[in-house]
Specification:
The protein has about 350 residues and is an alpha/beta fold. It contains 11 helices and 10 strands. A 5-stranded mixed β-sheet has the order 3-2-1-4-5, with helices on both faces. Strands 8-7-6-9-10 form a 5-stranded mixed β-sheet, with helices on both faces. A hairpin with a 5-residue loop joins β7 and β8. α4 crosses α11. It starts with 8 loop residues before the first strand and ends in a 22-residue tail after the last helix. About 50% of the residues are buried. The site of 5'-O-[(R)-(carboxyoxy)(hydroxy)phosphoryl]adenosine has 19 residues, from α5 and α6.
């Protein structure tokens, strides 16, 4: 009788910011189960993430999330092949909770520890449960989140070459700051998206900062300031929905123009967009139709996998496991892990 191929289940742990998440993923592609606990309600009244509250909450909920994951799946933690954890970038206190929790599991159960870069995990989210996407490459991957706006050349599902990133505010950060200016609550991205639905995206022409003909970097602080100024000076004459909609359009348009530039430089065939801001419906629509016009393929993970989650961590962790890229128990967190010019 033919022996069944052995499969590997990786436990993923993500605590880099304000989501506590755990997941079990088989062979880097099949999500057996995942749980995401969002701390949004804890931070809302402060208008942004409070690091001390975030780390304390991770510490409180992580053990029960792991128990719940085992009950839900009927898979015991003893059955995993390895434990993958986000080591950075992110908030130092939050990262420490996840990394120490993963170390304890690794030590107690004698399972390999896998150290995962949060940004690489966001890119990998594109391929999770969609391995066929590999054939559409080479890709340009855009990662848009609360802390990052980054472009990569992606040769296959696991090789990422940094091309450019934000020089000031990250794209999600611009959404969050503009939302506060407009009197909307944290997190700003979903709040702006909601208000923008009843607005006119062409009512106000906000700047599209492209930084010269060859740059693959981004700058959103000028756009953010332009919005703040318009709202301060013309508040009585303009509708909030029009400001939100015009701002959102400027962000999405800038992101696409830069991504297209990278596609042309690198002769890529496909565009991938992930990270929290990729949950934005207008961004998804715009990229889909603009990519089609240019004869390119476009794909973005399901919305849940765009936001911070542990399935993407376990998914990419599988490849670390296969290559025996094990982290020592002495590994530290890397809050400022960065790429290219802005390397911390
Ligand atoms: O990837 P993520 O969950 O966490 C980080 O790694 O930063 O991204 C969070 C960011 C926040 O800035 C949030 O406002 C933004 O993603 N975001 C959105 C939407 N949903 C979340 N931005 C625009 N539209 C959305 N629907
Ligand atoms: Zn993230």
């Amino acid at each position: 009788m033919k022996e069944a191929k052995k499969s590997d289940i990786i436990l993923g742990i993500e605590t880099s910011c304000d989501e506590t998440a755990v997941a079990l993923v088989r062979d880097g592609k099949e999500i057996l189960s995942q749980i995401i606990y969002s701390q949004v309600k804890l931070h809302k009244k402060f208008g942004g993430v409070v690091p001390e509250i975030a780390s304390r909450s991770h510490l409180e909920v992580l053990p029960s999330l792991l128990r719940e994951l085992q009950v839900k799946t009927g898979i015991s933690i003893n059955e995993i092949s390895a434990v993958a954890v986000t080591t950075g970038p992110g908030l130092v206190g939050s990262l420490l909770v996840g990394v120490n929790f993963a170390k304890a599991i690794s030590y107690a159960l004698k399972k390999p520890l896998l150290a995962i870069n949060h940004i690489n995990a966001h890119i990998y989210a594109n391929f999770l449960e969609r391995p066929e996407l590999v054939k559409k490459g080479p890709h340009i991957a855009l990662v848009v989140s609360g802390g990052h706006t980054l472009l990569f050349f992606v040769a296959d599902s696991k090789q990422y070459e940094f091309l450019g990133g934000t020089l000031d505010d990250a794209c999600g950060e611009a959404f969050d700051k503009v939302a506060l200016t407009l009197g909307l609550t944290y997190p700003g991205g979903p709040a702006i998206e909601k208000v923008a639905k009843s607005g006119n995206p062409t009512k106000i022409h906000f700047p599209r900062v492209l930084l010269g003909a060859h740059s693959l970097d981004f700058s959103f602080s000028g756009l953010k300031t332009a919005v703040i100024r318009v709202w301060r000076d013309k508040r009585k004459k303009i509708r909030r929905a029009d400001v939100a909609s015009s701002f959102q359009e400027a962000v999405v348009d800038t992101l696409f123009q830069k991504t297209l530039r990278a596609v042309q430089f690198k002769k890529a065939r496909s565009i991938l967009v992930s990270g929290g801001v990729a949950a934005n419906e207008r961004l998804r629509q715009y990229f889909k139709s603009a990519a089609r016009k240019h004869g390119l393929s476009f794909s973005s993970p399901a919305k849940l996998l765009c936001l911070d989650n542990a399935a993407m961590v376990a998914g990419i962790g599988y490849y670390h496991y296969r290559r025996k890229k094990f982290a020592p128990l002495s590994i530290d967190v890397k809050p400022n892990l960065w790429y290219g010019k802005n390397q911390a």
